[in-house]
User: Fold this.
Amino acid sequence: MPSGVPSRDPAGPLRDPANRVSPKAVRLWLVEALIAFALLVGISILIARWVGPSGWSWLPQWFADDPWLLPVGVGVLTTPFLVAEPFVRYAVHRWELSGDVVYARSGFLTREWVFVPVSRIQTVDKAQGWIERMLGLATLEIRTASHAGSSTIKGLDYTVAAGLAEELAHRAEELRDDAT
Amino acid sequence: MSVPLRLSPKVLLLQPVRMLPSLILPLLGLLFVGGFSGSSYVWVAGGVGVTLAFGVVRWATFSYEIVGDRLEIKRSLVSRSVRTIPMERIRGVDVSTPPMHRLLGLAVLKIDTGASGGDEEGKLDGVTLEEAERLKAVLLRRTRVATAPVPGTPATDAVQDVAVPVEQGIIRVPWRWLLYGPLSGAYLLTPFALAGGAVGLAFQWGDDLGFGQDTALSVGEWLWDHPYLLLGVALLLVVAMPFVGGVMYVVFNWDFRLTHRDGYLVAERGLINRRSVSLESRRVRGYEIVDGLAERWANVVRVWAIVTGLGESQTRGQLLPDVPRQIAFQVTGDAVGSFGSELRPHPPIARNRRLFRAIAPWLALALATALAALLTGVTAWWIAAVITLLLAGLGIPLGIDRYRSLGHGYDGMRLSVRQGSLRRSQAVIERRAVVGWHIRQTWFQRRAGVFTLTAGVGAGQGGYSAVDVSRAQVAGFPAEVTPEWLAPFLSEGS
Assistant:
């Protein structure tokens, strides 16, 4: 097991996957969190401007007087998540390919572990959003016949993702097992 | 056999009947607009004529043909289109006879190719019964020969096999068991649907039937002013639920037969629309045993097959309607394979989680309504508070029962997971159908130290979950079922 952040919550006797995602992924998650933050605050500003002067009787008086409390509240509540998410994700997101099985872990508040044997892989895609392209990152999407047996590894370095996709596609071809 | 074939011409008789509902309103509208003048009748007659002619042309331009090892369905009405279905992709053939078709001795043949969209499948609407049987035999035979070349077996063997179809009855559900129908909870809402449909029709057709929408509205208002009558009607509908539901169940599940035929599991059922679904045995990966609360009390279960690439699996994959549990185990054992192991319980903390989830929402609602009652003093809030409190109380046995349902197990061949209380379902899946494992832990689960383990399966729902398994089980179960996949990732010393 590589050193670094000690495993926070190992799933029983399961060990951590060996490889971290690219350190640049922290920036990716930060940008994504900022966009989500801006959207949330923006929407709550709109709601505040719409509801504030509406004079609806069921609104509490203190809120009608000061509708700006809504976006401020939303901002205060979400900021800790905004700050924590990229780093928690970087600690959690890991992947490994051993013994022809892809083992990946991901998540922030909800953790997910996925085991996908290469023999059951149907397609391997690598995708890049515009933020990922700017950062030189890529997302690897590994699909099987079942959504529950499919895996998405985010925040990989582009060259790593390309190499892994190539290797998986190649091995999957060799090991093809059409029991499903 | 390389002549393009058409559907039976008798299907042309069905055409007007089928078009009638959608045509009648525009045609009536035309008559009204025309003021019932002579010319308006001519226009209507023209409209009907064009529709009939359209039907004839469509029939004449639709053909199907078996070319080599594929079925080609040709349409050349507006643009020419040929749908080619390779025989080896055919996973099942579904013959059904809706009432109108049955009168004319026709059938609808649906060809299941395992494609994702419903439109991708082939459909021959209106072949004669004999042709349907012939096609079914041909299509399924070709499939079998094309896809199951057993090495070492001469090809002639396979063909001979087919010439005399091996048909072996598995079960014919006796009519007495149809009485279990109302317990299933299926079709229970039919009375409400019927009443709703009648109200809708009254509004839509009120004008044509001689009373306007105003009349319908005033009837509604009158009813609203007599709440006891309304309550009576609602009560009547509720009382009618099990009866109407039971009748519907009988209509759909009449004379249910399950047979082995030529490498296919064939389920036939239905009173008015007799339906026969063929499931290719080698694509059956397992089954799901479902029993609701009332069914468990009567010790009966329903069974669905878990089949790779079967669309509409809820209606088409049914292996058994309500039958006694022992019979169901026997039949699934014969038809697919039995599960010979006990289910292991999940850790006690899972019970607390089930209880919390069954009780807490209602309790919170009860508190909120009680608070509202105290603040406003309106009696309705008190009533709501009492009802929600009762529901919270019901949550206790419900939560305990949900916990009791939880379980997972593996017998060396098949794995099984079970969950649910009001609708308990146990899935039994072949080991080789598993395409991966997915473990999930929400923030709340992390605090309780439990996980949701899902076996990814390329059939049925795509994944079957064991909810709230312990730390040891979440790694232990996949390691037990697929040791070679998990071995590299188990930490040493455990």
